[in-house]
Task: structure prediction
Amino acid sequence: MQRALTVCPYCGTGCMLHLVSDSGRLVGVEPSATHPVNRGSLCIKGWNAFAFVAHPERLTRPLIRKNGALVPAGWDEALERVVTGIRAVQGTSGKDSVMFAASAKATNEENFLLMKLARRVFGTNNIDHCARLCHSSTVTGLVQMFGSGAMTNSIDCFDKSDLIFVIGSNTTEQHPLIGTRIMNAVRRGTKLIVADNRCIRLSRHADLHLRHKNGSDVPLLSAMMQTIVSEGLADTEFISARTENYGALVESLAGWSPEMAASITGLAAEEIVQAARMFAGARSAMIVYAMGITQHSHGVDNVRCCANLAMLTGNIGRPGTGVNPLRGQNNVQGACDMGALPDMYSGYQRAADPDVRSKFALAWGGEPLPDTPGLPLTLAMNAAHSGSIRAMFIMGENPILSDPDQGHARAALERLDLLVVQDIFLTETARMADVVLPAACYAEKDGTFTSTERRVQLLRKACDPPGDARPDWQIIAALAKSAGYSGMEYNGTAEIMEEISRLSPIYGGISHDRLTPYGLQWPCPDHNHPGTPILHVKGFSRGVGRFMPVAYRGPAEIPDKEYPLTLTTGRTYFHWHTGSMTRRSHLLEREEREGFVEVNPADAGRINLRDGESVVVSSRRGKVFVRARLTEIVPEGVLFMPFHFAENAANALTNNVLDQESHIPEFKICAVRMERVP
Ligand code: SF4
Result:
């Protein structure tokens, strides 16, 4: 038996585990007993992280569409087809008619190379990834106010906080081991406020559960802040020493009495006051949020309110405090760090800055790099729909299930002249491709992932990829070579990390040989630096923290006569993202085989619906047949559906309206109706 210490491929918690293999075949998983985050535990997904690796449906050869069908091909032919296809599209429609989608499931080294391929080899800033769908509001909001868009504190800080305020995060299901940390902290006496209108598991352990209406986070947080200001509970010392623009915040809060917020949130004014007093009264209070905050047409405003509340109470830069956005997929933090973003190079260096472009151009062979702004992924999908994006290269993502308004996403991809998908399975998106490139999965390669707490960790190869599948970084390097660029001939991923650290100051001291055993947290500017568990300790990354006033805007689509219910979407404990890996893990699939919709018994009663019966849920964009679960987890008037299941795709219903600053879609709210299937 061999054991390879590596990183869990699912959520951003960043647990490390040993992949156990016997004669080259994976047979199981053991948690790392000494890892500082998972400390000998794993959630059910981690325990099953070996199960999909040898699944018979793994892609083993490149596929090329011929006469309407995907047929096996050799690597040379497939790479040639991709390069000539992209060149042809660029020749007729311009360099920016191509979009590259990087992947939160691929390593840092691979995301860096895809960013380099897009900018250096194909001359476009059109590179983005699925953070656009989950935490782009966080990056936009927190960079403006703090100078950094990442989780400010470490997972360890959950053990050091007097009060944890969880808003818009179903932590026990999405980040199970962080959820466990929170519940353990509560057992030891930490106070817990949960703001979520579903009765999630954490809410049962909360000192205060705020079931505010979907989309009313800004009124709730604004009224909490107004209460803190008017009752003299603000940390004036912190505000005057460390922040700017406080006056503008106070002015913007003027109308937000608890009664005013109560009329919008559906809460009692006393609950809002109680939350404000509890939060401001704690010696150390931390805010934890996820996509319940970010995935709104006003997602950046929600993030700004969280950051304002933390600064108002001096809860930044100390253990047990901070603004802590929990990153979804295991390397979504790293994909952002690597500059898989249309406006940033690696290390959040602005693509619009000529000095940044010159630095990268010099390192990459001297050719000038593109200066036209790139497209965010969501706008690129719209551009594909309208015809100005003609080709897409998608690495390890499945937008047919993960993008809002499935009908729109499908039509957009169908209109392309060239769709290339690089993945480990023939996903719903890959089935539509002109070329499919078979990739190695996390267990079959090395490199690094960066977890939600900015911890850069090494993954280690435990077995060989199936058939002709190759690690993503090797495929990208081969594409570059095929396109005539010689600057991607690496001997291994450690060499790519050397280039990343040379060019990206926050990774300046990170190299593979420094990451044993459990990684380093960026910023890590030089080779003697120990890493940074807590950000903004003495000063903010931008100098001083900037308060930003927020004006309330409601959701883009609210219930009406035709569509009288609110649909919200999310994830479940057993599955991950679009299910391409967890649904091919037999135990996880056995536990939850199909999609479902949570329905409050009062709503069910109106259509004589019983638990387990099927319904059709319709929105202005589509309809889905799905089995109903009658439960008081959801309040009356609200339905909840997970988005993992192709057969009952929640995103056939969701609304493709975007936040105007971050371009994140409003996954969390749309108006629907529900009918019983006779
Ligand atoms: Fe993997 Fe996240 Fe579960 Fe840890 S909590 S084992 S990282 S899915």
Remarks:
- The mean pLDDT is 96.
